[in-house]
Predict the 3D structure of the following.
Amino acid sequence: MKKIAVFTSGGDSPGMNACIRAVVRTAIFHKLEVTGIMHGYDGMIKNEFILLHPKSVANIIQRGGTILKTARSKEFLTLEGRKKALENLKKHDVDGIVAIGGDGTFRGALEFAKICDIPFVGCPGTIDNDLIGTDFTIGYDTAINTVVDAVDKIRDTAESHDRLFFVEVMGRDAGLIALRSGIGVGAECILIPETVTDIDELTKRLKSGRKNKSSKIIIVAEGDEAGGAFTIAEQVKKRLPDYDTRVTILGHIQRGGNPSAMDRVNGSRIGFSAVEALLAGKQGVMIGVINKKITYTPFANAIKHTQRLDPELIRMLEILSL
């Protein structure tokens, strides 16, 4: 192996730059050339390849987003598009690839492997923490800390005005951002896709809670089956018209910001291990960290979101929010 490529794909997440930096510097330590592919699979098709060296990744570990940019590619979903991507990889003499992204990134790599014999390894970069094979994905820690910081500020207003706030966080298919950030802010209730939301039960819980509590915070994952924060708040307002109810959508601020120390270390460790995995002959696996140890999970297993939420966390929330 003489040359590897690295790219980021799907939604950006804080810590991706730390991972890119680790990939580049580890590869160069092992006397490998490194090329960066701009805009993910789309850039692979459009031949957006750039040479990377140690200076290319200087002073990026503290930056959010990704210096390699990211995009979703409709063309890569076609066989013709994947053939173009393979042609460009061979044109640039790429011997191995590090893909930093989430579920869609690894699904793309699996499909690509049907025509591409260049080994891929993956680094789990997504704020949702919805991949099997790692305790924490790159970006998750920063995202939940961003939510906690925002909700702490919202709580100040809620306390001052005796208001009920519904705060919607990201999590279309997984409620892990909502769950941990909800515990971190002392939310009265957390509504997530993995559990059924009963509006009548929620109303009952709000009414039976501590009467002298001057503020109440409900965290809602955007993928909750009862609807988003506005829909749920409207239904609760009909049942509790005396409550001064407000809604805040945190949106894409959860993706941005300087990565936390944990995401910088996690991204660096995973990027370093990805290069060494390629050199060891591994392919088609996602690099993860479980119980502080590096692990290798086949893409087909990593992308299946079968992880059950810890019932003890939900039980703890119910007790602590009284």
The chain has eleven helices and eleven strands. The mean pLDDT is 93. The chain has two domains: 3-139+259-302, 141-255. The CA atoms of residues 135 and 291 lie 7 Å apart.
